[in-house]
Amino acid sequence: MKFSLLATCFSLCIATATFSQSFDSKKLDRYLETLENHHKFMGSVAISKNNEIIYTKTVGFQNIKDKTKADNNTVYRIGSISKTFTAVLVLKAVEQKKVSLNTTIDKFFPSIANAKKITVENLLNHSSGIGSFTDNADYISWHTQPKSEKEMLEIITKTGSDFEPDTKSAYSNSNYVLLSYILEHIYKKKYSEILTSYIIKPLQLKNTYFGHSLNNTHEAISYTFSTDWDLQPNTDASIPMGAGAIQSNTADLVKFSDALFNGKIINKESIVKMKTLKNDYGLGLFDYTFENHAGIGHDGAIDGYKSIFTNFENDKMSYAITSNATNYKLDLITNIVKSAAFGNAYEIPEFKAIHITPEELEAYTGVYSDEGLPFKITIARQENRISAQATGQAPLPLEATDKNVFTFDKAGIQLTFKSDAKMILKQSGREIELKKE
Fold first, then answer.
1. Residue 227 has what pLDDT?
2. Could you say which of 95, 324, 351, 379 would form a disulfide bridge with 38 (CB–CB 3.0 to 4.6 Å)?
3. pLDDT tens sequence across 61-70
């Protein structure tokens, strides 16, 4: 027994030492600082190995107007990562026999279409067919205003159903708002109190809570980038509820991730249910496998905030990213963080500044199209910049990376202008040629 214990400890120490040697924290620091210096990213990263945090780094401002720099205690809205917390709370309630995965929601919400057919599990894995209220055309006009449960139920009921329950799956924020209300009904407590009782307090998550805190001076304000960082309005927490209203930081998120998958919140049977994918959806989880490393987690986006966490169980590693301002595709940042964590090679981008005269920029303006495409792209100039606007979409500010090459890094878009009045659009591995009309 004594030899076995020593052998286990010895192998664990070797694994940790090997990881530490291959993980270059200084290089990852330089990468994140480069993003900050070129107005690409403000936010935080944390990585844990063997249930210990081995890396934290925060860049940018918590509040640009007050010039308050963000630090490792800064708190960010984590958007749909809230759904993972909500799924855990529901499964905890199932373990306590307060509700069943097979319980139909007509008991709670008889006004919802197909309520007698929709189960709690259908809500958890997005197979309910209930439409997402955030897709409604008028959502942007009221999302900053507080809403009661009655008001939200009326909105979700009017949103209607997109398909018969359990016939397919489609992501819907409505599902997790309803789950939040179910938790409040069965526990006879506010969602925030349930979250605190079963997750925050037991795990001692010091920087995690529901909604806005009047007492916390470390909350980050969110921004989007046009020609500079623009302040974003905040969605009222009463609207997304457990679908997107939790605030946290990266250290707490990796701590939550490690505790969850080590069985410290719900039992192993419940964890297996969470991780079981149906039509690519788990219960509050997605498959985030990276190369040959099996990973599972969730991402989030609300207002100007973006976030992601992933647990790599076989590698005993978790990471989390939170942000209050991105002008760069989050997938690119995520892949670099994962590459760094696993000791893979990666390059730090240069973000070269290219000067192009207004006259040269004017030559690119016009409408570009192709007979086989359902949209056109209009290139317009605003002083020393150009923008690209696809049919029916908002204009995207472009950044010059070479004489004839422009990018919109936030969506991974690259436009290359050719001398024969043609333009090459590259995005997500696809390449399309359009001609100037």
1. 74
2. 351
3. 999 999 999 9
Cα–Cα distances in Å, from 416 out to 233, 398, 408, 420? 34, 11, 12, 12
Q: Judge whether 66 lies within some domain.
A: no
Question: Taking the CA atoms of the chain, what radius of gyration do you get in angstroms?
Answer: 23
Q: Which amino acid is at 256?
A: F
Q: Are residues 384 and 425 in the same domain?
A: yes
Containing structural domain, residue 158:
76-326
> By the 8 A CB rule, do 212 and 124 touch?
no
pTM (2 d.p.): 0.85
CATH number at residue 145: 3.40.710.10
Residue 181 lies in a domain: yes
Q: How far apart are CA 426 and CA 219, in angstroms?
A: 37
Q: Tokens standing for 113?
A: 């279409």
What gap in Å lies between CA 33 and CA 63, rounded to an integer? Answer: 18
Indicate if the pLDDT at residue 161 is higher than 90: yes
Question: Domain for residue 64, yes or no?
Answer: no
With a CB cutoff of 8 Å and minimum separation 6, the contacts of 172 are 126, 128, 130, 131, 132
